[in-house]
Structures are given as C-alpha cells and as structure tokens.
Amino acid sequence: MSLAPQDSALQPRRPLTAWTFGRGFALSMGVVLAILAGAMWGIWPAIWRELAAARPHAPDLAVLAGLSPVIRVHLYTALAALVLGAVLMAARKGRTFHRTAGWVWVVLVMTTALSTLFITSLTPGRWSLIHLFTGWTLIILPLAVIWAKRHEVAHHRRAMMGLFYGAFALNLAFTFIPGRTMWSLFFG
C-alpha cells in the first residue's frame, strides 16, 4: 500500500507544457472546425464555385459604406483586437504595457463578442452555430481576467491564447468564405 496521499487536491499539478497545450488546442480547434463545417453543410458546392471565380482586389469602400453600424463596430473592433493581440503575443508578459494593452484588448474583444449578438445575417432573424463562439468568448474572457488577477498564469495564458488563436485568427479565415462581408470587400 502506498503512503502517498490519495486526495487529488493534495497531489501536485502537472506543469503546463507545450505538448499538453498543443494537444488540447488541436482538439479544441478540431471541434471548432467540425462546428463550422456543420453550420455550412448545405452551401459547400456554392463556396467552391465562388472560390474558383475569385479575383482579389483592393477593398471595395462601397461595400464598407453599406454595412450596418453593428457590423462596422464588429469589424473595426475585431481588426483592432487582432492587431493588438498579435502585438501582445509577441511582447514581453507581465510588464506595464502588457497589463494596459491587455485591458484594451479585453474591451475590444468584449465589444466584438457582444456586437455579434445583433448580427444575424448568416441565418436571417436568428443566431447560427457560429454564435457558439460568442458564448465561449463571453464565458472564457472574464475567467481569463480573473485568472490573471489571481496570478494563475498558466490558466490565463491558455485562455487568452485560445481566444486569440481560436476566436480571432481562426475565425478570420472563416470571414473570407464567399458571400460574407470580408469576401465581398476583397474578392466580390
């Protein structure tokens, strides 16, 4: 019989390594891709036709001017959060810049997420499966802030990296699906 304590609360935690983060991140991105593929199941043939006919061009300012105010707020805050998030990922952590820019990033992300609650153009009049990302963001973002305040760096890092790479970098690719605003702006 072992003399080691059997209570899991007394057991030391395994440190977060690149391998454990990578596996979890890959699994979560697989789930994200499955949700998005399912949400777009019936439109794949049309997407492939549009991709074949794509002709890149400078941003069409007429498309930008024709967007509703909610979509413009969403677009501008998302792009600002993407740029600031990239800077934060590259910058040294824990310094004054990181904390200050981090709060700005949190406000930008929260504004971006809340604005999606009023955007229903993909499925007119109701939310789509893509709105699951909104729920995920509205839950994880406050938790990540709490973890930072408690100096739980590993939890904070995982949550923020997941939000940045999952909610922004990955979703950016899906905004360029034919028929969506970013597609019309640059390829339509």
Query: Which segments are poorly predicted (pLDDT under 50) over 5 or more consecutive residues?
Result: 1-6
Helix content: 55-70%
- The global form is globular
First-residue to last-residue Cα separation: 70 Å
Question: What does this entry look like structurally?
Answer:
This protein has 188 residues and is mainly α. It has a domain at 57-186. The protein contains eight helices and no strands. Helix 4 runs antiparallel to helix 5 (96-116), helix 5 (96-116) packs antiparallel against helix 6 and helix 6 runs antiparallel to helix 7. The longest helix has 23 residues, at 153-175. Residues 1-6 have low confidence and may be disordered.
Write the topology of this structure.
Layout: H1 18-39, H2 44-52, H3 61-65, H4 69-90, H5 96-116, H6 132-149, H7 153-175, H8 181-186
Helix pairs in contact: 4-5, 4-7, 5-6, 6-7
Main attributes?
single chain; mainly alpha; 67% helix
Care to give the gist of this entry?
The chain is mainly alpha-helical. Helices cover 67% and strands 0% of the residues.
